[in-house]
Amino acid sequence: MYAITIPEAGGPEALVWAEVPDPVPGEGEVLVEVVAAAVNRADLLQRQGFYDPPPGASPYPGLECSGRIAALGPGVSGWSVGDEVCALLSGGGYAEKVAVPAGQLLPVPAGVSLRDAAALPEVTCTVWSNVFMVANLRPGETLLVHGGSSGIGTMAIQLAKAVGAKVAVTAGTREKLDRCAELGADILINYREQDFVEEIAKATDGAGADVILDNMGAKYLDRNVRALAVNGRLAIIGMQGGIKGELNIAMLLNKRAAVSATSLRARPLSEKAAIVAAVREHVWPLVADGHVRPVVDRAVPLAEAGKGHQTLESSDHIGKVLLLAPAATA
């Protein structure tokens, strides 16, 4: 088969389409023939040499994909060859085939094409596990989403609205804020022109945000704590703004607030399987009835994955960027 390899760390040009050995599904795994994969920030970090795959994972980038089951490994039940699926991966999505633990498979939800299903696993698992399983967002509360027009952001808006929460977003252009509003966002903040702490205070009569989903890390840490409501919960899922920040413990104590930070890739298989099962139970029905949908900005051939990386690096997108395997373009 062919896959995107990274012979040396570097820019988008470091991604090389090359012939590699076919993966073989092990105990409890299935082999998926990939139709589409999606680009995530973690893939950019891996390409740059900053985010190695966990032990035992595929060396190729790609944390989610969609496709058809081509073979079943030993001990797999409940799935059949030919089933159309999407999957949460530890790596290997940028390839024609990938071996996936069966617990990380999801059926393609009703109303979504096999291609577009590649845009769902990472964002649904990230948002559900952080906003709902950890931060416990409840109906009537206010969620602030940084990067509201991103793949994660567009999913967080829809899921929060589906459970009856109020949603605030930050984004850097009018076009992106307008798209967030179309998805249901109530409070639109242009981070280039407005202070999100002040805007959240205005919009909530000084109460603040009950939950904040943050992709920036260090750069926003102090302001995020200031923007939290009493009993607020800050969920950090990224470090685009750096890795070291100063935390005002007194403010955190006064607000009786909590800060959590999580990632998906290196979690044990059992934890990832539990998150996938929760997404199938709680999110898939919302997708099937049209309340939630994947937001796809564009799709490029998998062999030209560097173009997808350039799009993410320039932030010239709204929603997800897909990579189409030869099986999808033949």
Unreliable spans are: none
Which CATH top level class of the largest domain fits? Answer: Alpha Beta
Helicity range: 25-40%
CATH superfamily of the largest domain: Medium-chain alcohol dehydrogenases, catalytic domain
- Sheet with the most strands, sense and barrel status: 7 strands, mixed
Rg, rounded, reads 19 Å
Strand content: 25-35%
In N-to-C order, the SSE pattern is EEEHEEEEHEHEHEHEHEHEHHEHEH
Architecture of the largest domain in CATH?
A: Alpha-Beta Complex
Q: Give the count of helical stretches.
A: 11
| Termini Cα gap | 15 Å
Outline? globular
Which fold name fills CATH's third level, the topology of the largest domain?
Quinone Oxidoreductase, Chain A, domain 1
Structural class: alpha/beta
Indicate how many domains the architecture comprises.
2
Rounded mean pLDDT score: 96
Number of strands: 15
Keywords: NADP, Oxidoreductase
Domain Enoyl reductase (ER): 10-323
Protein name: NAD(P)H-quinone oxidoreductase
InterPro entries: ADH-like_C, ADH-like_N, ER, GroES-like_sf, NAD(P)-bd_dom_sf, Quinone_OxRdtase_PIG3
